[in-house]
Write a structure and sequence with these properties.
binds adenosine-5'-diphosphate; 213 residues; globular; 69% helix; two-stranded antiparallel ribbon; binds magnesium ion; mainly alpha; Serine Threonine Protein Phosphatase 5, Tetratricopeptide repeat
Length: 213
């Protein structure tokens, strides 16, 4: 299995639909420990991305991902705009000129995206951010690839690890972003950015690996 350009666009569209569907939920999570705008921030950004989809079809995968990143940076205020923007810009740089992705290419893209988020936001694992979902997803993807798993199996394992990482943010005390202002009171709530990151990688597994449900 390889991922083609139109699969990349289908992933972005599936994630956009997941964000729209979960807008209220993400905003509720952010109301508990932040300022209650994560759902609307993400939805605003991906509605702007949606409007650009017609221009994406003839671009290479790197250019598609960079367009997504630039659109997010320019339309989303708040922490998540620059962070997701950087994720897509860096993943796009790692896939410059590519018309399809192998598992190794996707490992490189996810690695570049996660490194970009860490460089930009300076979060470490355990700080209760999207990094707590993305890091185990990347780790598991790499392990699956080095074990010789197929692309589809690796994508599902990566999305499952992302979900576990998202759930593991619940007991954590936030050390980055607005939630850190709450100190100990941030414990007991799931991080909104980790939740949207899980939707992102679950959408990749569902669309690219025909995952059920
Ligand atoms: P804001 O915090 O500006 O209101 P959002 O509500 O859209 O922005 O996004 C909040 C999410 O951003 C958090 O749940 C967290 O996952 C993520 N986040 C915040 N700061 C950082 C950071 N420094 N590094 C990584 N992720 C971060
Ligand atoms: Mg917020």
């Amino acid at each position: 299995m390889t991922v083609q350009r139109d699969d990349v666009i289908a992933w972005i569209q599936a994630f956009t639909a997941a964000i729209t569907e979960n807008k209220g939920y993400l905003t509720q999570l952010d109301s508990d420990i932040g300022d209650g705008d994560h759902g609307t921030n993400m939805d605003r950004g991906f509605q702007a991305v949606s409007a650009k989809v017609p221009e994406l079809a003839d671009k290479d995968i790197g250019a598609i991902l960079k367009t997504v990143g630039m659109t997010l940076v320019s339309t989303v205020g708040g922490a998540s705009g620059p962070l997701y923007g950087t994720f897509f810009l860096q993943a796009g740089s790692a896939t410059t000129g590519k018309l399809e992705l192998s598992l190794a290419d996707w490992v490189a893209a996810l690695q570049a995206g996660v490194d970009g988020v860490i460089m930009r936001g300076k979060a470490s694992p355990g700080d209760k951010t999207m990094i707590d979902a993305l890091t185990p997803a990347l780790q598991t993807l790499k392990e699956s690839a080095s074990k010789g798993s197929g692309f589809a199996v690796a994508l599902r394992a990566s999305a499952d690890a992302c979900e576990q990482g998202m759930l593991a943010t619940i007991p954590l005390v936030a050390r980055k972003g607005r939630a850190s202002y709450l100190g100990e009171r941030s414990a007991g709530h799931q991080d909104p950015g980790a939740t949207s990151s899980h939707l992102l990688l679950r959408a990749a597994a569902q669309v690219w690996a025909n995952q059920e449900g």
